[in-house]
Amino acid sequence: MALRRLSTMDSAFLVLERQHLPFHVGGLMLFQPPADAPPDFAAKLAERLRQSTQTAAPFNRRLVSRLGVKFWEEDRDFDLAHHFVHLALPQPGRIRELLDMVARMHSAHLDRAYPLWRTYLIEGLEDGRIAVYSMIHHALVDGVAALRVQMKTMSADREESLTLPAPWEMKTRKTRNVPLPIPAFSTGSIATVSALLRGGRKSIPAVTRQLRRSLQDYRSNNPDLITSFSAPRCILNQKITGSRRFAAQSYATDRIKAVGEAFEATSNDVILAMCGGALRRYLDDLHALPESPLIAGVPVSTRRDDSETGNQVFFALTSLATHLANPAARMRAVKSSMDYNKQRMAQMSVAELVAYSSAMYAPGVVNMLTGLVNRKRTLMNVVISHVPGPRTPMYWQGCELTGLYPVSIVIDEVALNITLVRRHDFVDFGLIACRKTLPQVQRLLDHLETALQELETAAGVKPATAITGKSRKRTHKPA
Amino acid sequence: MALRRLSTMDSAFLVLERQHLPFHVGGLMLFQPPADAPPDFAAKLAERLRQSTQTAAPFNRRLVSRLGVKFWEEDRDFDLAHHFVHLALPQPGRIRELLDMVARMHSAHLDRAYPLWRTYLIEGLEDGRIAVYSMIHHALVDGVAALRVQMKTMSADREESLTLPAPWEMKTRKTRNVPLPIPAFSTGSIATVSALLRGGRKSIPAVTRQLRRSLQDYRSNNPDLITSFSAPRCILNQKITGSRRFAAQSYATDRIKAVGEAFEATSNDVILAMCGGALRRYLDDLHALPESPLIAGVPVSTRRDDSETGNQVFFALTSLATHLANPAARMRAVKSSMDYNKQRMAQMSVAELVAYSSAMYAPGVVNMLTGLVNRKRTLMNVVISHVPGPRTPMYWQGCELTGLYPVSIVIDEVALNITLVRRHDFVDFGLIACRKTLPQVQRLLDHLETALQELETAAGVKPATAITGKSRKRTHKPA
Q: Which residues neighbour B345 within 8 Å (Cβ) at sequence distance 6 or greater?
């Protein structure tokens, strides 16, 4: 393989990386081995995977510098033992020990002298399941692409799954369809410039029109308009350390859908309302709930027919309505905020949207990182991201997939990230947070359940009868 | 605790630290639980240690910055779960899996937002032993002090050992009696200045005399004089990556003593000759053995009655005589090199010694780091360090100590460090190396055994009868 120069975006992930701020994404997967699996099933699986040495791009690419410019180069001394590691949980092998282990591994940097990924096969869960935790640097692939590779190694057929290669043997298209974890100032500028180059100067009148519309909504106190200074700075918005806490749990897809139908809202709206309810309770317990509503940064796909570049993703700033005690009122306010976002976004081309949001939110990015304009306000309080998952039961190496929890990135001033995968039967939540900044993050899991129950009650949905088929359990301990 | 400003030396360890170059030291200890230990012995021990929350200095000190100056401050949110972690080895639980795990943990940085240490209790070894791996930043305490704390938590009496507190509850004197892992240029200059301040200008004639003596020895081709440019640059002397390989093994103290007596050499001379023999074979296998002998940097204590500052340590540069195929000739050459070092050092006060070595070796430090003077030569090829260990059997929490392996630091241009602890029955070798730079480091363990056997044969020592008492095994797999 020849040298491949890194894109501006890929370089940004490396340049912006700091000791306390690694830019890798991860995923924790749980698998149920076959009923007749022997006691050394995990050790044998590890041994089999160690034979999988036909590494495909990008898993064989390592970073090299030539005269200060960074390139990808094929690693000719590829050392699988560095990348694939077999681990075990200590007794008693609870989910709690697993989440602690994942948090520790996610806190460590990948060594830039090697291809920037690692996969851990973890045995010793008390319920007999095995876990796989994978981490990969955002400069190599984004989380969606990483998940896509994982899915390609699985099959809806248990037998067929035994014939599929290891994830690192799967050739993957390089994709870049999620932005930086936040619209950081430097990449914001890059994005503005390239959007204007793509969209041409003809975008400018449309963007000006949209900014004028925002000014009108601001003057008329439209609560759905989120400005650079809407988010109240709270304990979620501090400088972070390099240590992470990870929490994960699954909630039945049917429950979320039922609430959505009752409120004529999308499942995504319901999930945001759940997060709003959980964060309200979490901050209230800590006597740290701001008076004005928390603002979530929600990556939204902006795929359009008129877009040249295929998938693009945009950060919608959405109210979580945490100022409202009533669950139904909170649900309606979150839906209204998301509907407003979608309606405004529909009026713009991708190029216009990027230019608009740079103009609208650049002051907020600066303020978030410096506090120079308004120390009590910030751009967003939390990132809530959703990723589409498999729509049917899936198998990997003969084992059924029972959980797929994203392990994302937190950054200075946004110390909590909630990313979830929607599978056919469960929505798998992965919460990653700065360990030192945010206490007792695992309580958010209970608060999410409580928030969902409150929404079910408000919607008049009877949870016990809303569940059908295999999804008997209402909450699924990782989860 | 008030703020304590860091010393220049402590700050140096933090300032010089890089992503690929962490400055923490570690130790791997192996323990044999009591014969009647239940299967959940390790889990219960972990639970007991988790109750040990009365953390003493320096284990409760975290780093803070005030106006750019670094201080130690008591961590008021001390979070033991961050520092003490219970782990398990995957099946089959061989020493190999343990060494891999330790290497991975040693490759990760400590988070500067927390007190700079971590201790891991590891269960799951197939032979039923338990392991403890501890890491602590060199800015907090040095390796010798860290070992001293560990020893204070142990007892020669099994019952008494059950009553002793956890290591982090042991108040320890702050000591600083080992230097930087190498005499880096910046700290070399600091050392020169402070030595001259301490020793006064009256040192200068003595230092000049010693430098003149070195010049005479150089002109007369004295092979025992090691200059700045004696060491042949080889594969041991490359830029390192951030990933480590760890190898460990024990060799019976009696065997080493017997060889020493036969050659009228110290045990330390024999150990250096073993290292020389092992490195000769290792490099020869890789077709990378230089023609001229490898030079080891050997930290040597320079305690004197005339020294004001108590213990000081100096890097003696010593030939490993790797150019000699004959083990007896190699043994005699190593002894001669060490004797020359000791004789020269005995003629100087500590202040003179520091000033002399700065003048003598500063060009070598610069050359080692830059290659500007002579790309084929360097200051030293390897660091070989020894640490005194316990002289009797010791117990910790009711378990017998059966191995105590140092896990030290490697740096750019010195990719291998061999540090050993001399206990009553075994000498425990810990070899730490850059994983990417040096292949198959674990082979050095076999080569050390071979080198010792060759020395035994050359000495006419019968190994089988030289072993007495409990030390029946001649080599002790960690080791």
A: B300, B302, B314, B316, B353
Nearest chain A residue to B106, by CA:
A108
Q: Which residue of B has its CA nearest to A43?
A: B91
As a whole number of angstroms, the distance between CA A455 and CA A275 comes to: 12
Q: Cβ–Cβ of B92/A43 closer than 8 Å?
A: yes
Q: Tell me the residue length of chain A.
A: 479
Helical segments of A66-109, H only: 80-83, 95-107
Indicate the length of chain B as a whole number.
479
Residue numbers in A near B242 (CB within 8 A): 109, 111-113
Q: Which two tokens stand for residue A171?
A: 């050739």
pLDDT of residue A350: 74
Contact with chain B for residue A36, Cβ under 8 A? no
Place of tokens 């060199």: B138
pTM for this model (two decimals): 0.89
Contact A351, A198 (CB under 8 A): yes
Q: Per the structure block, which two tokens stand in for B406?
A: 């140092």
pLDDT over 90 (residue B350): no
B243: nearest CB among A82, A123, A124: A82
Question: Quick check: A19 and B20 CB within 8 A?
Answer: no
Of the residues A138, A323, A447, A476, only one is catalytic, namely A138
For the stretch A368-396, pLDDT in tens is 877 777 888 999 999 999 888 999 999 99
Find the CB nearest B43 among A19, A90, A111. A90
Give the separation between CA A34 and CA A6, rounded to whole angstroms: 42
Spatial contact of A447 and A414, defined as CB atoms under 8 Å apart: no
Q: Give the pLDDT score at B194.
A: 54
Mark yes or no for CB contact A436/B100 under 8 Å: no
**Which residue in the list B24, B83, B137, B138 is annotated as catalytic?**
B138
Q: Each residue of B411-438: b (16+ CB within 10 Å) or e?
A: bbbbbbbbbbbbbebbbbbbbbbbbbbb
- CB under 8 Å to A451, separation ≥6 — which residues? A273, A274, A275, A276, A277, A278, A281, A327
State whether residue B90 sits within 8 Å of chain A by CB. Answer: yes
pLDDT band with cut points at 50, 70 and 90 for residue A462: low
- B-interface mutation test, from A84, A91, A410, A435, most B Cβ less than 10 A away: A91
Is pLDDT above 90 for B106?
Answer: yes
Cβ-contact A283, A234 below 8 angstroms: yes
Residue of B nearest to A93 (CA): B88
Distance CA A166, CA A170 (A): 7
Task: Give tens-digit pLDDT for B138-170.
Answer: 888 877 788 888 899 999 999 999 999 998 998
Given CB atoms, is A291 within the 8 Å cutoff of chain B?
no
CB atoms within 10 A of CB B247: 26
Residue with tokens 């009877």: A462
pLDDT in tens, A158-206: 999 999 999 899 876 554 444 444 443 334 444 544 555 555 566 678 8
Instruction: State CA B77 to chain mean position distance.
Output: 32
Contacts of B46 in chain A (CB under 8 A): 90
Q: What is the mean pLDDT of residues B271-278?
A: 98
Which range has the worst mean pLDDT, B61-75, B241-255, B366-380, B407-421? B366-380
Q: Which chain A positions have a beta carbon within 8 Å of B435's beta carbon?
A: 79, 82
A18 part of contact set with chain B, CB < 8 Å: no
Residue B185: pLDDT band with limits 50, 70, 90: very low
Point out the residue among B90, B97, B243 whose CB comes nearest to the CB of A123. B90
Residue B118 near residue B22 (C-beta atoms within 8 A) = no
CA distance B86 to B95: 17
A138 is catalytic: yes
Task: Please report the pLDDT score of residue A305 as a whole number.
Answer: 44
Rounded Cα–Cα distance for residues B245 and B269 (Å): 26
